[in-house]
Amino acid sequence: MKYMQKVIATVMSLSFLLGTLTGCVDSDTEGGKNMETTQIRTLIDGKPLESSKAVMKDGRKRFVPLQAVLEQMGFEVENSPGLIEVIYRTPLTIHGTNLHLDREEDIRMVNGVAYIDMYRLGDISRADVVWDDDASTIMITSVDQDAAAEPPTYEDIEEQPELSGEESMKANYGKYDFSPTLDALSELYEDLDQEGYDVGSVLGFYPAYHHSGYFNTPLDVVAFGWTGGDGEHYGFLTDFGMAPNLEEAPIVIVSPMSHDQPAEVVANNIREFIRIVMMDSSLLYIDYQDEQDYLDQLKEMGVPYLEETEENRAYKRVVLERLEAKLHPPVIRDPYTYSQQVRAEREKRILVPTQDKLGIVNVHPADSGQQHEAIVLDEDIGLRELETFLKSATYAEKLALIRDYHFNLDKYFYHEDGIDEALIREMENLGLHEEIARMNANANG
Questions:
Q1: C-alpha to C-alpha distance for 328 and 185, rounded to whole angstroms
Q2: Proportion of the chain above pLDDT 70, given as a percent
Q3: Number of C-beta neighbours around residue 132 at 10 A
């Protein structure tokens, strides 16, 4: 995790306020329809901002008048249509940044004046920008531009030691015993391998017991099988420990390269999952209407299933017969719409939606009769807002927040200190020690 170094400044006198009115900006402003003026003050190196223009706010974001702030910090600001050039001159060099307004999401034009998000200002000026919630003040501390620290490179980041096989397995399984079905399947893989048969080539995955190692594998997933492509793997979804055992846990497919929705529920349990992959693993993630639609789509994709040689069919027959005899997986009446039905049934049970689409289905006694509402998690969330939410949140709401937190773990760098610590502390309070262990295991490779 990345934690920004922030400056703790002495609270100054409240006599320096920017603006005295609060209200919506006129709707005819350029890109600032949701902007509101505030009484937030700005201190630059301990001195009040010398401008009559108030700090503005849009949701959680706070915007300062770009030119007024930067010029007080010693920068030169040159404006031209669609472009703002920021220049800082030192005896050693000239630092310049071009801000193209059509690419800058954190710059808003209000009545012809450019306002910039306080943290984006820190990026371009290399200044330390801190929000003081108690004093309702933006604290900006300048730095020596020639000596400003560069961001760390990969060479600067200390590598963590890799986990041993036993450590990886322990992190993956946590409190859960191995799945008897998966154990039996793994034994069959080994037996048939000695006889010259590759079961993985028939079922489309290879069993494994180690943790996934991917940041976007959900924290409550126990990985168990790998397809061999782009890190794609299958896992038991424990729903934060709600599953009584892995035999009864839903099965997900995790596609690490699919950043918007890396995990998707594909089967009710491991035994039904095996029945489906014995037919065709594409039934798990492609929505078919019926058997004819399945055959038509295979033909369109150019999958030569109907053109297999007798030798290939005989090879598969041996593998499938051995699987049937050893595991006796249940019959699936409609395999062509099976996974769609599984996902639809889960969606009906979701109490709180989450950004990864898995949602929270956990029913807790303390939540009885309560309505659930999610909190939006983004990089601008404040520590006070977060702590206030956690004090009154339901169990399901807290789990939804934690799922969203992990979903964005490698994307979000929270502007306020203490966000990561508060969420990890809440996970500990909820007893999610195994989920924390999996998160730490990912960091250790």
A1: 11
A2: 87
A3: 16
